[in-house]
């Protein structure tokens, strides 16, 4: 698991200033999400990177932060605060 500030900094470093070409999301199942974006949505996941958040609330704050900066994605979803939450970008 990684602290919220660390994940924010790493994502910012990875995506730079042009957030609009990146997608951010949250999941409990990384393999399923990767498969969905690649096979169902036909997206290029070559630059996929993920982090384990300390909490669902932290993950949602991170996601909201980058969506507000222009990244693709949407807040919401059916996630549990009792399961491991991953933040991903690609």
What does this structure look like?
This protein has 90 residues and is an alpha+beta fold. The chain has one domain. 40% of the residues lie in helices and 13% in strands. The chain contains three helices and three strands. The protein has helices spanning 4-15, 30-40, 56-68, and strands at 24-27, 49-52, 86-89. A three-stranded antiparallel beta sheet has the order 1-3-2, covered by helices on one side. The protein is globular and about 30 Å long. The mean pLDDT is 96.
Show the helix and strand layout:
Elements: H1 4-15, E1 24-27, H2 30-40, E2 49-52, H3 56-68, E3 86-89
Antiparallel strand pairs: 1-3, 2-3
How many discrete domains?
1
Strand order in space, largest sheet: 1-3-2
Terminal Cα span: 19 Å
Fraction of residues in helix? 40-55%
What is the overall shape? globular
How much of the sequence is in beta strands? 5-15%
The number of distinct β-strands equals 3
> Order of SSEs, N→C?
HEHEHE
Report the biggest beta sheet as strand number plus sense, adding barrel if it closes: 3 strands, antiparallel
Briefly say what this structure is:
By secondary structure, this protein is α+β, with helices and mostly antiparallel strands. It has helices at 4-15, 30-40, 56-68, and strands at 24-27, 49-52, 86-89. The chain has one domain (4-76).
Provide key terms for this protein.
alpha+beta; 3 helices
């Amino acid at each position: 698991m990684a602290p919220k500030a660390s994940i924010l900094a790493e994502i910012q470093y990875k995506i730079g200033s042009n957030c609009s070409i990146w997608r951010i999301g949250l999941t409990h199942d990384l393999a399923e999400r990767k498969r969905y974006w690649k096979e169902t949505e036909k997206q290029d996941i070559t630059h996929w990177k993920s982090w384990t958040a300390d909490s669902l609330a932290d993950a949602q704050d991170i996601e909201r932060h980058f969506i507000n900066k222009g990244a693709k994605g949407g807040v919401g979803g059916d996630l549990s605060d009792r399961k491991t939450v991953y933040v991903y970008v690609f």
